[in-house]
Design goal:
Oligomer: single chain
Helix content: 10-25%
Radius of gyration: 25 Å
Strand order of the largest sheet: 9-18-17-16-12-15
CATH class of the largest domain: Alpha Beta
Number of strands: 18
Structural class: alpha+beta
CATH topology of the largest domain: Chloramphenicol Acetyltransferase
Order of helices and strands: EEEEEEEEHHHHEHHEEEEEEHEEEH
Length: about 400
């Protein structure tokens, strides 16, 4: 009996896997549990095991193919057995068949880009297929227009015929600029691109505030006097903020939730995704049940996850089940930035650097350690008033941090 090996889901948010390397080849004999293929799924590398023993009769995917969850990737059985006549869907098949043309920056040199200029935006279905009406496709073929560079104005972002004839003629022009190098996006970068596109399709609203971190600075000094000597590491400002966010979310359960269809699901667990930068892109491991942990426990866990990130050794569970994300660019000298929500979450907090500046307290100018913070929320389910209340409560927690569990 032929066994179908499928692309397995290695984390809750994983929607597809990229084939990195086949560890076995067609004709090889394998036992159940043998490692067969390396894949990249949801910002991490994994190895898939043979679901049964036998001979690898057919490998259906090439290296770099993007395969949706549950699609077949190989057949295992007895030598000579007839295999099913099925093939997997490949998300990158369209891109390989018809790569998009570039739009030259100087295609219309007499006109400067302005607020009224139409911007080219990709409008695709989850499968990668471009959403366009039959008449639009026909008109695009007649005029030689690249649909991937057209912004759809029809229902749900669909490209209609008028979009083809009204948007800039530059959409059909070849790029005359010399290209120094061409690099294929890494699997991690592809995942980031897809997830951020998915997120940006939903309306964001962002609240911004400035937080006096002077008391946090003092608390951190007190903690590190004991922690560094006893445990051999130092607690960071971000560790304290993660704890403050987790405690604040206990009072705002709607920020610890996700939208599934028409259901708004609020989670019991408060799991904080901590954004970490790598050379290839951003990765977000999870501190689970952060509200039930002390600042020191969170610091230990974040350091352990950071070491795994550097060694590319994260397990599926390390990336799973986050309910809210904290992204901190303070170490890069950034004062303020507007974050993009990490789907399927409903909100994200962005933090800038802590720096001393003059502020007015009780009509007296004094120097305090200040930090800018911005909170972006999914405007489909959260509005400006509760977002402002959430940020105000977080500000109060951080300005009075000695009540937190050390």
């Amino acid at each position: 009996m032929v066994t179908t090996m499928i692309m397995q889901r290695m984390s809750v948010a994983m929607e597809y896997g990229v084939i990195l390397k086949w560890l076995k080849k067609e004709g090889d004999t394998v036992k159940k549990g043998d490692l067969v293929v390396e894949i990249f799924g949801e910002k991490n590398e994994f190895e898939l095991e043979a679901p049964a023993g036998g001979v690898i009769l057919k490998i259906l995917c090439d290296v770099n193919d993007e395969i949706p969850i549950s699609e077949p990737i190989a057949f295992i059985g007895k030598k000579g057995e007839k295999i099913p006549d099925i093939r997997p869907k490949k998300l990158n098949a369209l891109a390989q068949a018809a790569p998009a043309r570039s739009v030259p920056a100087a295609a219309t040199p007499a006109k400067a880009a302005g607020p009224q200029e139409v911007q080219a935006t990709e409008t695709r279905l989850p499968s990668g297929r471009i959403k366009a009406s039959p008449r639009a496709k026909k008109k695009a073929e007649e005029l030689g227009v690249d649909l991937s560079l057209i912004m759809g104005t029809g229902p749900g972002g669909r490209i209609v015929e008028k979009d083809i004839v009204t948007q800039p003629a530059a959409m059909t022009m070849e790029d005359s600029r010399k290209v120094r190098d061409v690099k294929t996006l890494t699997p991690l970068r592809r995942t980031i691109a897809r997830r951020m596109t998915q997120s940006w399709q939903h309306p964001h609203i962002t609240m911004i505030t400035e937080i006096d971190m002077s008391e946090v600075v003092a608390l951190r000094e007190e903690i590190n006097k004991k922690v560094q000597k006893k445990l051999g590491f130092r607690v960071s400002f971000n560790d304290i903020t993660v704890k403050a966010v987790a405690d604040t979310l206990e009072k705002f359960p709607r920020f610890n939730a996700t939208l599934v269809g028409n259901e708004f699901r609020m989670f019991s667990d408060i799991n904080i995704g901590v954004a970490m930068a790598t050379e290839e892109g951003l990765i977000v491991p999870t501190v689970k049940a952060a509200n039930k942990k002390s600042i020191t426990q969170i610091a230990q866990e974040v350091r352990a996850l950071g070491k795994k990130v550097k060694k590319n050794a994260l397990e599926p569970e390390d990336l799973a089940e986050s309910t809210f994300t904290v992204s901190n660019l303070g170490s890069f000298g950034v004062d303020l930035f507007i974050p993009v929500i990490n789907p399927p979450e409903s909100a994200i907090l962005a933090l800038g650097q802590i720096k001393k500046k003059p502020v007015v307290i009780d009509d007296i100018i004094t120097v305090r350690s200040m930090m800018m913070a911005s909170c972006a929320v999914d405007h489909r389910v959260l509005d400006g008033a509760p977002a402002g209340q959430f940020l105000a409560t977080l500000k109060d927690v951080l300005e009075n941090p000695f009540f937190m569990k050390i």
